[in-house]
């Protein structure tokens, strides 16, 4: 069964420029979809349109079906209860998602109270559990810290903990590891991989980086200039990419040699 489906999603500016052009894809429950494309291809706008967070003046047409319900028809109030509770997000720079003036403990508590209606004591317990889940074992210190007192990797772990706090159906991750150095990036990808597997959360993972997507996604949508140019699987894209643009992305990724070379596989 389909967890999230985007059907003919088209986004236009108030000036009539088409930024997304009839984008369609779907991801089944427990599926892992990667969306890849170069800068400006429309990946982030797709994510924003799904969440009802398009910049002012842009309009979206088509359908965004979550469990069969079209999110594009929902008002702001209804959307707010979808965001976080049903579709959670992790973004590139956790500092923009985290409030610099609030301790990590209070930030993790927010969604737990709002969406899960947990009591104060229960919230403290759940927050500590979540920290351990994302392997922030120095729980008391982490919960009492402000975001700027943590490393980039720790902050992204906190964002992941917050995203998973409400047991969302879909986790939408937009370049979640791009700002991290390669070692930390690998740790965060392994963590995401493990948590997604364990919780059965449906994953939509947006990145410009094919090797990164290949690590966590199974299905793949390749975007260019606001359109889907190829819908395939990661395995197929690595093995026999059909579209010239996908071949180009693969060649570029191989050139920096983080994917097995053709003769090594
Ligand atoms: N606020 C905006 N106003 C006008 N055009 C915009 C705005 N935001 C994005 N665009 C345009 O929409 C297109 C898609 O942008 P989008 O941010 O979705 O690309 P992306 O694939 O996510 O790129 P990146 O990897 O750099 O984030 C681009 O042509 C971009 O210039």
Automatic annotation (TrEMBL):
Q: Where in the cell is it found?
A: Cell membrane
Q: Which domain of life is it from?
A: Bacteria
InterPro entries given for it?
A: AAA+_ATPase, ABC_Ni/Peptide_Import, ABC_transporter-like_ATP-bd, ABC_transporter-like_CS, P-loop_NTPase
Q: Which GO terms describe its cellular component?
A: plasma membrane
Transmembrane stretches in the record are: none
- Please verify whether the record's keywords include Oxidoreductase: no
Question: PROSITE patterns of this UniProt entry?
Answer: ABC_TRANSPORTER_1, ABC_TRANSPORTER_2
Report how it sits in the membrane: Peripheral membrane protein
- The answer to whether keyword Membrane applies is yes
Q: Listed GO molecular functions?
A: ATP binding; ATP hydrolysis activity
Per UniProt, residues of the ABC transporter domain are 4-250
UniProt cross-references to Gene3D superfamilies, sorted A to Z: P-loop containing nucleotide triphosphate hydrolases
Q: Which UniProt keyword terms apply here? A: ATP-binding, Cell inner membrane, Cell membrane, Membrane, Nucleotide-binding, Translocase, Transport
Say which family it is in: Belongs to the ABC transporter superfamily.
Which protein is depicted?
ABC transporter ATP-binding protein
